[in-house]
Write a structure and sequence with these properties.
alpha/beta; Lysozyme-like; Muramoyl-pentapeptide Carboxypeptidase, domain 1; three-stranded antiparallel β-sheet; 10 helices; 13% strand; binds zinc ion
Length: 333
Amino acid sequence: MRNSLYLIGLSFLLFSCGTQKVATKLKDLPQPSAYNTPLPPKPQIKHDILGDYFTINIADPSKNDNTISYGSIVGAEPQGYKITRDYFPALGQNFRQKYIILHYTALDGRKSVNVLSKQAVSAHYLVNDSTDVEIYQLVDENKRAYHAGVSNWRKDTNLNDTSIGIEIVNNGFKEMGGKRIYAPFPDFQIKKVAALVKDIANRYQIPPTNILAHSDIASARKQDPGPQFPWKRLYDEYGIGMWYDEATKQMFLSQIIPETFAIDVNSPAFIIKAQIALKLFGYSLTESGIWDDATKKTIEAFQGHFRPQNFDGIMDMETWAILQALNQKYPNK
Ligand SMILES: [Zn+2]
């Protein structure tokens, strides 16, 4: 009796240390025998002068598909002691890298390198505008780069903590006749961006909902990479990021009666509905019931990403249909 009470107590202690969920049911607790099973096999580690390396992917995708560990292992070297890495990685872990954020530099190539490597602002990668095969890495992927600033997406804030930032050399926009004219991205540069994003997204299993424009996560302040950035092409040709299904968009469009929409669109009830839909999709927004500046900028960011032909910040029928189609395809759980 005393023994079994001890084991139950031990189980609870071990279990409650390892999880944030409060275990209330005794039957949910791991059985003590689980702690006596054989130890996991030791993965092969290559040792050389520069450090320790896993030579194969030692993750177990059937248990946790997010433990892939390639390349070098960064760890402690406490004086007088030896760190043993033979049982690393533990199954209970995941990557810190949850997002890929795309930017344009609004500078030429030379200035981009100088600013991003010598000043407080930085990015993990810089995609240049030359036809070579080079892409510059400026920050270790395991470290934070300073590219996102004050930022939000769905439940996450301060996306510098959890993202890989990619800056693309591009001149941004010029104001002409009250309109913003954005510089296009050459084909060879888009191919570089696509290959880079695909590689990063695959390694960290970053979902399509988390591959975003800077303007998506900081709509009030930022316009980059702007409406010239070909999100649809990246989705169609490389399977990168989000895009709506045309048929679903048409279905939502067919449900809208233009005459009614024209009246409803400025009612507080509709505006709140639209603001809730934008928030649900991921944008940070206040449900004010008016087309305030923050909401207009959010719509502009949304259009720049998903309806780049017209990014006037006005919730028209097509924008509304696309937003609903996207919310259906990429539900925010
Ligand atoms: Zn940016």
